[in-house]
Specification:
The chain has 539 residues and is mainly beta. The chain is built from one helix and 35 strands.
């Protein structure tokens, strides 16, 4: 008997049967289980409030310092800064309406040199302005003050395209703005402070002009009321400059045209121009010059040094230091020697001061009284008015025979002057306690030898030590002899040169205590000084 359901039909019904079984199991699981009654639980005891430990007050974050400017930024507003990454970089500084409106912009470059490829300013009305700027900027340099076109719109953003120069680091760019209608408030009850990039002490400002256009002519009137001048110099500010002509006319209609360099960088000045001897005052100074391409309008200042004015001192305090000599750097590369000699005594330190112009120091050597020349490690470049560190000599105090220089003036500058100063060891204070004064003599004559004898009374006790004190002026000791009661005279070794208020070492007399009959000196005063006084003390 055949089954009533075929096998293929049963295969088709198998999934249907499985679905009904799953639905039944799901409904069984969904039924709630009977719950047992829980025994009554005691009410939880309320927890006493725990005092919260005092939390330390949040440490206030220190305010971020505003970017420091290497120029006089009074009245300017910092709009932002960016660091130049990679070979070619694009950056944007957002400004916006909250910053207000600006009439001028300037860009300052820090940390490394930079090549500026593009500079674009976009205003709120979508207009753009591409100022013409120099392509290369040195570290610490800035653009001219960029006058913005008249607009009622604020600046939306400023776009940069630039790159670091090969061999340098990553430059940093600061953008500064000058708000429309702003002015620098004058100092209260004080004249305006003007900073110059060189030492103006002793100089008088004769006038200043701004170079307009590509080529410009200007005249600075001086006149007899300003007095007579023996030197002139010209300082360039705000931008680079090409000088085409510089002419000075005196009251007697004679003129003088000094030879000057053609190109001057911002912050640079001419050499000190020595004027020809004349009894006449300067009438005027004619200038012909032009701004360099890509820069802004340069500003020119002419300064004069009056004939009767005292020479300005060094730009540091030389108190306690002795001037050993000075030289002027001639030509592109120059060699000079400053002779010192034993008459100047011994020194422990030395420093070099650079005046009148910038200088590159190529080599520097000191020849002491003995041994090989010494070459201290110094920086290569020195700015006008700058000086080296205090150079400590090797060993104890040393006598200097001479100092050799190899140096050169920097292109575009004048002739630098180098002054060398030495520092002597501080002399120990002389305490005459327990010493007996045997006598004193005055050294007579200038530049010639003098001989003196100090006789000691026979009633004086015997002595074991002796010292000589020099007062009133410097002294060169040629010979010293001590005659005892018996035997030959004793010639102690003493230093050749003694400064005012110095003394010899303590001289130990030979043998036991000795009776001194007399002490004889052979010495002379040093040139340029007064008459020295010599005292002899014994104990």
């Amino acid at each position: 008997m055949r089954p009533c359901v075929s096998f293929p039909a049963m295969r088709r019904m198998t999934p249907l049967i499985a679905m009904f079984l799953a639905m039944g199991a799901g409904s069984a699981l969904a039924q709630p289980r009977p719950t047992r009654p829980m025994p009554p639980q005691p009410a939880p005891q309320p927890m006493p409030p725990q005092p919260m430990p005092p939390q330390p007050a949040p440490r206030p974050m220190p305010p971020q310092p505003a970017p420091q400017a290497s120029w006089d930024s009074r009245g300017w507003v910092s709009l932002g800064e960016r660091t130049v990454n990679g070979n070619v970089d694009h950056d944007r500084i957002e400004v916006g309406k909250y910053e207000g409106k600006f009439a001028k912009l300037t860009m300052v470059v820090e940390n490394s040199d930079l090549e500026l490829i593009d500079f674009k300013i976009v205003f709120g009305d979508r207009t753009e302005y591409h100022p013409k700027l120099n392509h290369m900027f040195r570290e610490g340099q800035r653009t001219r003050a960029i006058d913005l076109p008249p607009s009622e719109a604020v600046i939306r953003f400023v776009d940069f395209k630039y790159r670091n120069l090969p061999g340098g680091g990553e430059a940093r760019v600061q953008l500064w703005g000058w708000r429309t209608g702003d002015a620098v408030p004058p100092p209260v009850n004080s004249p305006p402070i003007v900073k110059h990039s060189w030492d103006t002490r002793g100089w008088a400002l004769l006038g200043q002009r701004q170079v307009n256009g590509r080529a410009d002519r200007d005249r600075i009137e001086v006149g007899r009321y300003e007095g007579k001048f023996s030197k002139l110099t010209m300082a360039v500010e705000d931008s680079d400059l090409e000088l085409l002509e510089f002419r000075i006319e005196f009251d007697d209609r004679t003129e003088y045209r000094p030879r000057l360099s053609h190109f001057f960088r911002e912050g640079q000045r001419t050499r000190v121009i020595d004027l020809p001897p004349s009894e006449h005052a300067i009438r005027f100074i004619d200038l012909k010059y032009k701004n360099t391409p890509g820069g802004g309008p340069a500003s020119v200042e002419v300064w004069g040094f009056r004939s009767d004015a005292p020479a300005p001192g060094p730009a540091w305090d030389p108190k306690g230091w002795t001037l050993l000599g000075e030289r002027t750097v001639d030509g592109r590369i120059d060699h000079d020697r400053i002779e010192v000699g034993r008459y100047e005594g011994k020194f422990t330190k030395l420093t070099i001061v650079v005046e009148n112009s910038d200088l590159e120091l190529i080599d520097f050597s000191i020849q002491f009284g003995r041994g090989e020349p010494w070459h201290p490690a110094l920086s290569h470049y020195f700015r006008e008015g700058q000086r080296t560190r205090a150079i400590d000599f090797p060993g104890d105090e040393r006598s200097i025979r001479y100092i050799d220089f190899k140096y050169r003036n920097l292109p575009g500058g004048g002739r630098a002057k180098v002054a060398v100063y030495g520092l002597r060891a501080a002399a120990a204070a002389w305490d005459p306690k327990d010493w007996t004064l045997l006598g004193e003599q005055r050294v007579n004559g200038h530049g010639r030898e003098d001989t003196d004898k100090i006789k000691v009374s026979r009633f004086e006790p015997r002595f074991r030590k002796l010292t000589v004190v020099v007062l009133d002026s410097d002294l060169e000791m040629i010979d010293m002899s001590i005659k005892f009661g018996r035997g030959e005279p004793f010639h102690p070794e003493v230093n050749a040169v003694f400064r005012e208020d110095s003394r010899t070492k303590v001289i130990d007399l030979p043998g036991d205590e000795r009776t001194i009959k007399w002490i004889e000196f052979k010495y002379r005063n040093l040139p340029g000084g007064g008459k020295a006084r010599v005292q002899v003390w014994a104990k």
